[in-house]
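[Solved] Which block belongs to which protein?

Original post:
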Amino acid sequence: MNIEYLRNFIKLTQFRSFSKLAKELLISQSTLSHQISQLEKDFGEVVLIDRTTKKFEITNAGKLLLKYAEQIIDMYDNCKLEISKFKDHFTEDIIISASTIPGSHILPRYIADFNNKNPNVNFKILINNSKQSVENLKKRTVNFAGIGSFMNYDKKDFEYIKIGEDEFRFICSPNHELLKYGNLVTFNELIKYPFVWREKGSGMRYTFKQQFPDYKKLDFELEINDNDSIISTVSESNYISIMSEMMADKAESAGLIKSLKIKKYPVIVKRSLFFIKLKEKQLSKLKKKFWDEIKSKSKKNEKIGSL
């Protein structure tokens, strides 16, 4: 049995489409179909995926294989990792998919400290929005995720560590006419100007909609999938936006934007930021060490913050 065929079978049950997965894997659809057919032969000519229906259907045999396949892959990967330690130059990858705030402003300090003590770790951080980061974790293409929202996913499927808190602010250009009498404005004044925000799938957008019901009154003009680009857009126009206070503070210090205070809205949005992993996923010793270190340091930071 080819272990990579088994790995692709697991991914196929998540993508639920031969064509979409083939495109993701950069192989032909016929190659992927051959891999599944070979698995079916390996397990005694059983049918794993019902190809006779228009819908994507996993057979009972396929469901049973999926249950054991995930365990087999985990055991294989862990075994391969343990054996690789006998090499002279052993290295281990830790792959993290994270949204902008956790990935660019919180996790790097944990990673740098851990890497200094464990130089045999090769960290890879993929910056995506929260939805994509959770999906990457569910597809097992990454080991961990850093997110600003669980979106519509069930928290019970994950183990998670609170790694920070974040608040949102409305922002505008330093030369915006809203600032004519200072940075304290009414919401009615604010909604006169065009609004730019993040794309669907962004934890920032999702949380803003959940916690700020009056968002519907804003004049939506643009969607941009990058916080830095939103800041650039706001900096040079009459657009307004919302932004994480971590990014807003840095951009304001650089003279790019101004933060606005809204009368009768002392807090716009407040959210927690999380570092997560799949609940049933077994970790290698080094990955578990990294997870435990983040958990320990996050708890210490929370205690310091409450003093």
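(Second protein starts here: sequence line, then its structure tokens.)
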Amino acid sequence: MAAGRKASRSARRSAVTEPKLTPSLPAHDAAMIAPGSGWGLRNRMARIVQPDGRSVMLAVDHGYFLGPTSRLEVPRRTVEPLLPFIDSLMCTRGVLRTSVPAVSTTSVVLRVSGGPSIVGPNLANEHITTTMREALRLNCVGVGMSIFVGTAHESQTVRNLGELVNEAEDIGMPVLAITAVGKELEKRDARYLSLCCRLAAEIGAHMVKTYYCEDFEKVVEGCPAPIWVAGGPKLDEAEALELTYNSIQAGAVGVDMGRNIWQSEHPVAMVQAVRAVVHEDYTVKEAFAFFSELSGR
């Protein structure tokens, strides 16, 4: 019996660590993710969400408001080693053009909103900065933008989302709504995030990115669109893996994680450990042991 479990775990690890060289061709019908949508939108969604119904998205769009943040000073050095182990990459068009090899088969969700920076008075005053035509030209499978619920720019950013969804529906492009909190991290509770996520889904977002919180099951239950959980500021690796595990157990489709992967001292090991939790059902203890093994800790 023990030998059988060991062989099974070995097979699982092999599946996780082998780089993904070709796009996944899901066997499931992605209409379950985007009900009533056309083939093009469902096909793009199926390139983000894998056949097991889960997804690992890597966020490297931080520079659009933070500038050259730690470990992302030279995006290509950060991004390229991680591409084989993710299902999709979230970035701006500038980073995509300059820092992602054109031969890459990793799906891209394009950040299309922006405006304010971290040194400005308010991060919420965002606008659409990149056209849908540009997203098509760059061969993206989705577009993403932030909404700032409860701020002075709530109406503006929600209207941005509605207009983006209208354009996206014309060409079958999935839209990821990001429930941003700006500098006010204390807003991350179930009541507030449930409001944000439901609002985004009601406006028409096909995917929602939000934060994990206590009673996260209620956030998932109240949102008709699939949810990805943000990693947020850098955590210890074990804590980040626990965040990933708890998110999946509570019903999230996956994670859209950035700093907790590429700010790790061992980012390639970390992304594989995160992937093991999302796609291979590793526990936190198993995933951290896997990370330690890969990183030589």
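Accepted answer:
You had them paired correctly. Confirming on the second one: The beta strands are 55-59, 88-91, 107-111, 113-114, 127-128, 142-147, 175-179, 207-210, 227-230, 254-257.
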